[in-house]
Specification:
Helix content is about 70%, strand content about 0%. By secondary structure, the protein is mostly helical. The protein starts with 13 loop residues before the first helix and ends with a helix. Mean pLDDT is about 75; it is low at about 120-155. The protein has 8 helices and no strands. This is Regulatory protein zeste. InterPro entries: Myb_DNA-bind_5 (IPR028002). Self-associates forming complexes of several hundred monomers. It comes from Parnassius mnemosyne (clouded apollo). Pfam families: Myb_DNA-bind_5 (PF13873).
Length: about 240
C-alpha cells in the first residue's frame, strides 16, 4: 500500500506560477477555447505538451503536463474567488478601495480568463473548499493562494435587482403604486377610444361631402345637357326655315 501511494511533489513557487501564466498567454487561444470536439481537444493536448516543454526548458524543477494542468485549474478557481472577494469588499466599502490584498498572479489569470472570471457565489464556496481539501491529499504540489471566503463576505453585496428596482416595504405604498398604474392604463384606453371615435366621425363627414359633391356634379352635367339640347333644336329650326 505504501508503494502505491502517490509521491508528494514540490510546491510551485511564485516564479513558476508567473512563468506558467506568461506561457499560457501564448497558448490561450487554443487552451482556453470553449469547444470540446475531437479536433479541438487534440489541439489543446498538443498545446499543453508544447507549453510543458517550454516550461521545463528554463527551470530547475521538471514539471509534468498533468501537474501544470492541475495547477492551472487551481489558479483559475482561486482567481474566481479573488474576484468575488474583491467585488464584495468593493461593495462593502461603498465603492471605495477594496480590502483584499492585491495578488499579481491572480490578476494576470483574471485578465487571461476575461469574462469567464466573474467570481463565484457563496453556494459554490463549499465545493471550492472540498476541491482544495482533495488537492491536499491528491495533489500536494499546488500551494494555496487564497483563504476560503465566509458567507458574510458575499451577503454584504446588494443584489443587482434590488439596486435597479425601488424597494416598496409597506402594502399601502404598493396599493398606491398599483392604483396609479391602473388609473394610467384606464386614461390611456379612454384616450384611444376618443381618438377612434374622432376617426369614425371624420370618415362619415368625408363620405357625406363626397356624396354631395357627386350630386352637384350630376346636376351640373344635366344642366349642360339641357342647354346643348336647346341649342341644337334652335339650330335645326333655323336651318329648316332657311331651306
Amino acid at each position: 500500500m505504501a508503494e502505491n501511494k502517490r509521491k508528494r511533489c514540490q510546491n510551485f513557487t511564485f516564479d513558476e506560477k508567473d512563468k506558467l501564466v506568461k506561457l499560457m498567454n501564448t497558448f490561450k487561444n487554443v487552451i482556453l477555447n470553449k469547444k470540446t470536439d475531437g479536433t479541438t481537444n487534440q489541439a489543446k493536448n498538443e498545446a499543453w505538451v508544447n507549453l510543458c516543454t517550454r516550461f521545463n526548458s528554463t527551470g530547475t524543477t521538471a514539471r509534468s503536463k498533468e501537474s501544470l494542468m492541475r495547477v492551472w485549474e487551481k489558479m483559475k478557481t482561486d482567481a474566481k474567488l479573488y474576484k468575488a472577494l474583491s467585488k464584495s469588499s468593493h461593495n462593502g466599502t461603498g465603492g471605495g478601495p477594496s480590502c483584499v490584498k492585491t495578488d499579481i498572479i491572480l490578476e494576470q489569470v483574471s485578465d487571461l480568463m476575461g469574462r469567464a472570471c466573474t467570481g463565484i457565489t457563496d453556494c459554490n464556496t463549499r465545493n471550492v473548499e472540498n476541491i482544495e481539501n482533495n488537492d491536499v491529499g491528491n495533489n500536494n504540489d499546488i500551494a494555496p493562494t487564497l483563504s476560503s471566503p465566509t458567507s458574510s463576505q458575499f451577503i454584504k453585496s446588494t443584489p443587482i435587482w434590488k439596486r435597479r428596482r425601488p424597494i416598496i416595504k409597506e402594502n399601502k405604498d404598493k396599493a398606491e403604486v398599483v392604483s396609479t398604474l391602473c388609473g394610467g392604463f384606464k386614461d390611456l384606453n379612454s384616450k384611444k377610444a376618443t381618438v377612434e371615435d374622432l376617426k369614425i366621425k371624420m370618415l362619415e363627414e368625408e363620405i357625406k361631402f363626397k356624396r354631395e359633391l357627386y350630386q352637384l356634379q350630376l346636376e351640373t352635367a344635366r344642366k349642360e345637357l339641357e342647354i346643348k339640347t336647346e341649342v341644337c333644336n334652335q339650330l335645326k329650326g333655323m336651318c329648316f326655315i332657311y331651306w
